[in-house]
Amino acid sequence: MTQLWQLKSLSNGEKxxxxxxxxENWGPIFGLNxxxxxxxxxxxxGEPYSDMGWFEVSATEEGPLKATAQDLAWEKAKxxxxxxxxxxxxxVPMTSGKKSAWVAYRKELREIKSQAGFPxxxxxVSPE
Length: 128
Hints:
By secondary structure, this protein is an alpha+beta fold. It has helices at 26-30, 59-62, 69-83, 96-110, and strands spanning 4-9, 52-57. The protein folds into two domains: 4-62, no CATH class; 69-114. The protein is built from four helices and two strands; from the N terminus they run E-H-E-H-H-H.
């Protein structure tokens, strides 16, 4: 089961974010692979985080998370971006035209939320 977290004020307990799973890459971002203890007090990050902390929340406490169609579409776009990260590496042998096609494809994925009718949209086609 996914752990759910919420950002709260340390001084008054005010909820500062919606209940959500932590991003899978949160540890490497802060150089804290697996060190959950550092999340409950973010003072080590300095201002404006000195009065903030992430706290684990049970699904029954806040009710289950319900993914919206927008959430699902954005998750799909992020997955497709992640799957195409390899195409942006500098040592991948490909023509400049093919590289441009991958750049354009990834740009479309990043801008998917601004497409008319989001989340009911036309998905960009991978250059593969």
